[in-house]
């Protein structure tokens, strides 16, 4: 019972004080791709992904929240032998306390606009046979680079817990619940606006790198994992109904290696293009 209490306490501790937001942006997103992969599965998986995304800045720093609802086709069944696809929820929250806002300093750091202390958590649940229940806490420094838009690089201390519902995980010597070793994690997030022939565009994305995190559910060594998810988006709302930053359409790509830290077997590497849509309000 300690882990849920710890996570609840951290959520309260990370909640920003009730200061008015300097700015905020909220959107509902949609992604569609045909070649996603899942560990232990050698089939291409079609996924539809709905996203609720919110980011905002306030007097001391900033907040970021994203909730993904992922729906797979039958190639990724909801349980062993089922025809219907699995459903997954993935929630991530990050809070940053920024040096310049805290100190009042206006000093420049060369190409870096500001530094911050970032902390947050990830929570995942999925109704597949594996039934993962990922919980991850992160904390560490972040560099915010001086570019149009944003470019943030974070070096984080991470701690992760997970569950495994597969029969091999219940066998002697294995475990269906693991507290992984602490590991360093790099996170990179960017959003770079530009124009082409008068049309607003943005090149945006997210990437992470996780170092090895000890043993997995079957006492095998984990591998370093990384993900890169860029997209190129066009402000079609401006073209269609003269509403700036309301409706964006574009193409994305997901490249992932050693998913969940798996070091071998089918389905651990993803390479898939995606169709992306964002409705900002």
Descriptive account of the structure:
The protein has helices at about 1-15, 100-105, 235-240, and strands spanning about 25-35, 45-55, 60-70, 85-100, 110-125, 135-145, 150-165, 175-180, 185-195, 200-210, 225-235, 245-255, 270-280. The chain starts with a helix and ends with a strand. Strand 2 and strand 3 form a beta hairpin. A twelve-stranded antiparallel β-barrel has the order 1-2-3-4-5-6-7-9-10-11-12-13. About 10% of the residues lie in helices and about 55% in strands. With about 280 residues, it is mainly β. The chain contains three helices and 13 strands. The longest helix is centred in the N-terminal third of the chain and has 13 residues, at about 1-15.
Q: Which percent band covers the strand fraction?
A: over 45%
What is the CATH fold-level name?
A: Outer membrane phospholipase (ompla), Chain C
Low-pLDDT windows of residues: 1-17
Going by CATH, what is the homologous superfamily?
A: Nucleoside-specific channel-forming protein, Tsx-like
Structural class label:
mainly beta
- The secondary-structure element order is HEEEEHEEEEEEEHEE
**Judging by the overall fold, what is the CATH architecture?**
Beta Barrel
Instruction: Count the DSSP helices.
Output: 3
Q: What kind of assembly state do the chains in view correspond to?
A: single chain
What composes the largest sheet? 12 strands, antiparallel, barrel
The tally of structural domains comes to: 1
Q: Count the strands?
A: 13
User: Nearest-angstrom radius of gyration?
Assistant: 20 Å
Strand order of the largest sheet: 1-2-3-4-5-6-7-9-10-11-12-13
Mean pLDDT: 92
Shape: globular
Query: In percent, how helical is the residue content?
Result: under 10%
CATH class: Mainly Beta
Distance between the termini: 39 Å
């Amino acid at each position: 019972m300690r882990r849920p209490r710890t996570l609840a306490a951290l959520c309260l501790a990370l909640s920003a004080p009730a200061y008015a937001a300097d700015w905020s942006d909220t959107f509902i997103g949609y992604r569609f791709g045909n070649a996603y992969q899942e560990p232990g599965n050698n089939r291409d998986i079609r996924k539809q992904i709905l996203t609720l995304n919110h980011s905002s800045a306030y007097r001391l720093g900033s907040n970021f929240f994203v909730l993904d609802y992922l729906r797979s086709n039958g190639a990724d069944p909801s349980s062993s032998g089922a025809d219907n696809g699995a459903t997954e929820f993935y929630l991530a929250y990050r809070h940053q306390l920024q040096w310049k806002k805290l100190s009042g300093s206006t000093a420049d750091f060369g190409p870096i606009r500001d530094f911050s202390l970032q902390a947050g958590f990830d929570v995942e649940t999925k109704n597949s046979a594996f039934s993962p229940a990922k919980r991850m806490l992160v904390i560490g420094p972040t560099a915010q680079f001086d570019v149009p838009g944003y470019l943030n690089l974070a070096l984080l201390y991470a701690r992760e817990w997970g569950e495994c519902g597969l029969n091999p995980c219940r066998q002697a010597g294995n475990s269906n619940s693991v507290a992984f070793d602490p590991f360093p994690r790099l996170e990179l997030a960017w959003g770079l606006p530009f124009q082409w022939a008068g049309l607003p565009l943005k090149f945006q994305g997210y990437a992470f790198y996780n170092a090895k995190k000890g043993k997995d559910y079957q006492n095998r060594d984990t591998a370093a994992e990384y993900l890169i998810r860029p997209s190129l988006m066009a402000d079609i709302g401006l073209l269609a109904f003269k509403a700036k930053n309301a409706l964006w359409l574009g193409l994305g790509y997901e490249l992932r290696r050693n998913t969940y830290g798996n070091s071998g077997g089918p389905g651990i590497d993803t390479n898939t293009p995606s169709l992306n849509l964002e409705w900002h309000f």
